[in-house]
UniProtKB/TrEMBL annotation:
One GO BP: response to oxidative stress
UniProt domain Plant heme peroxidase family profile: residue ranges: 168-448
PANTHER family reported in the protein's UniProt record: PYRANOSE 2-OXIDASE
Protein name, entry field: Plant heme peroxidase family profile domain-containing protein
Coiled coil: none
Entry keyword set: FAD, Flavoprotein, Oxidoreductase
Cofactor requirements of the protein: FAD
Family recorded in the similarity comment: Belongs to the GMC oxidoreductase family.
Length: 553
């Protein structure tokens, strides 16, 4: 059932989850499928509103390397799944290991603990695909690193019928969590305090889960810590520290030796209309030998607006797009005559193939089942930009704290100090050098750098910007002094409060975090189900009925 606000006759649930992004819904559906009654709270509604969005506003001491709230948070049913790209990538074994060259590395669980959930996580996200034969392993770099793409990026939309019809789930929109009310001297959560439609509501449950996104999870806990100063190690403790994301960009092109090699890294469908793609990744051995952070590479088409690509199809697509914008009378969309002339020259070299190729690509993109996840076009010379996505090393100086400013509900906002370190930049440079050597040695191709060697670090710094992935702020640890949650994602010292999402990751790896975060959320759902089955009989008896009736739609 989906309700606007918390119904007045609601009493209690077995599980209360704050957040309806992929992670929150993954926990909720895992528990509901097991027969538990779950209340799910969403701050926003089914449409984006300025009123809700401004609750996430924060101050940052560097707006260049950290993106603002309106680009990184979406208070709406479905959360940031309503704005993400849909890429799903598994983490790697080395991400979970303690590495001598990466301070703060090592998870308190093994990768094998998470791996059984990847297939169910992909099905949950609509990025599952038919099994493919593994490619042979390579020394130096792997080419069998895979990414898959969701068929429906909006997780709430994909699971809408289940959310509407399940007797075990009540989703309440316009229900902003503003406070965590404690009992037993701060050792257990009594209730979540909600603001909805101008009213304050107290909701009770047996277990509570924060799945509000990385920064918001940490903000709620920091506000809680302000009332219980010794909680999570106090001011000098781990809460809000080691804020991580990734580094991404291009400092080189890749020139493949032939078209067949290039095609191995193109988008392709692997059953169920799911697109997949292979990437380059240094092996774990290579990373350890050369003190690298984890990183992945893949070819990227030159931007169609840059006529220097000399590609008639790309130029035709660009001109078609410009003419369409002009026809819609969009201001500032005039075509520069010099630029237009360069594109026309590309087209006129082979006008027939250029127009046919552009028409085929445009038709493909009109059909949802065949639409590429993003723009990609074969080049005539097998030269592509080489995109990298690199790990951001744990850094105690990268952190968030509470600001004295408050939001519309009186909750302290955040002050963000997001930091990259020299290791992050140097590792990207070295990984490119090693990949170039590897390609040349095997006759696969070579790299062409966009800048001279002395300017490459500057190029990486120019592209280094995050705030989207929000990793590490409530990290997992064996001991309370080292983290915020334990290996089951239960908050240290608070038996019935769990934290879900990438904020619990101790390291960022090369992968964007959504798939692993959903897998970990499903594991958390199984843990909560097992815990309530063995310890929560009184809770279960008290919360067997969620309200039913007119709120459903």
């Amino acid at each position: 059932m989906i309700s606007h606000g918390v119904p007045s006759h609601f009493r209690t649930a077995e599980i209360c989850v704050a957040g309806t992004g992929p992670v929150g819904l993954a926990v909720a559906l895992q528990c509901a499928t097991a027969g538990l009654r779950v209340l799910v709270l969403e701050s926003g509604t089914e449409r984006v509103s300025r009123e809700h969005q401004r609750l996430s506003t924060f101050t940052s001491d560097d707006d260049i390397i950290h993106a603002p709230a309106h680009l990184t948070v979406r208070r709406i049913l479905g959360g940031t799944s309503t704005m993400w790209g849909g890429r799903c990538v598994e983490y790697d074994d080395i991400d979970f290991a303690r590495r001598g060259h990466v301070a703060g590395s090592g998870w308190p669980i093994a990768h094998g603990t998470l791996q059984p959930y990847y297939d169910t996580a992909r099905r949950f996200l609509s990025s599952d695909f038919d099994a493919i034969a593994p490619s042979p392993g390579e020394s130096g770099f792997q080419t069998n690193s895979l990414e898959s793409w969701t068929r429906d990026r909006n997780t709430a939309h994909y699971h809408r019928e289940t959310l509407k019809l399940s007797p075990n789930i009540l989703v309440c929109t316009d229900s902003t969590l503003v406070d965590v009310r404690m009992r037993d001297g701060g050792n257990a959560v009594e209730a979540f305090v909600i603001r909805s439609r101008g009213q304050e509501t107290v909701v009770r449950a047996g277990c509570f889960v924060l799945a509000c996104g990385g920064r918001e999870n940490a903000r709620l806990l920091l506000n809680l810590q302000s009332r219980f100063p010794a909680m999570f190690g106090g001011d000098g403790g781990p809460l809000g520290r080691r804020y991580m994301g990734h580094l991404a960009g291009e400092i080189a092109c890749i020139e493949f030796a032939d078209s067949q090699l290039a095609e191995a890294f193109f988008f392709r469908q692997a059953g169920r209309q799911t697109f997949i793609r292979h990437r380059f990744r240094p092996t774990d051995e290579t990373q350890r030998r050369h003190d690298l952070l984890n990183i992945a590479f893949w070819p990227k088409s030159p931007p169609p607006e840059d006529a220097s690509h000399s590609d008639g199809v790309a130029s035709a697509l660009h001109m078609m797009s410009r003419l369409r914008m002009r026809a819609r009378h969009r201001p500032g969309r005039q075509i520069d005559p010099t630029v237009a002339s360069a594109h026309l020259s590309n087209i006129l070299r082979k006008p027939g193939p250029a127009m046919i190729g552009a028409a085929r690509y445009a038709c493909r993109q009109l059909i949802p089942q065949s639409r590429y996840p993003h723009y990609f076009l074969r080049t005539p010379d097998d030269i592509y930009l080489l995109h990298y996505h690199s790990e951001h090393a744990p850094n105690d100086a990268s952190r968030i704290t509470l600001s004295s400013n408050k939001d519309d509900f009186g909750v302290n906002r955040l002050s963000v100090s997001f930091r990259y370190g020299d290791q992050d930049f140097q590792s990207v440079v070295r990984a490119h050098e090693l990949l170039d050597e590897w390609l040349r040695a095997r006759g696969y191709g070579r790299l062409r750098y966009l800048d001279e060697s002395e300017r490459r670090v500057d190029g990486i710094k120019r592209g280094a910007r995050d705030g989207y992935h929000q990793i590490g702020l409530t990290r997992m640890s064996d001991q309370p002094r080292d983290g915020v949650v334990d290996t089951d994602c239960t908050a240290h010292g608070i038996a019935n409060l769990s934290v879900a999402g990438s904020s619990v990751f101790p390291t960022s790896g090369q992968a964007n975090p959504t798939l692993a975060a959903v897998a970990l959320a499903q594991r958390l759902g199984d843990h909560l189900t097992a815990m309530l089955a063995t310890r929560g009989s009184s809770i279960i008896r008290a919360s067997r009925e969620l309200p039913r009736g007119s709120a459903s739609r």
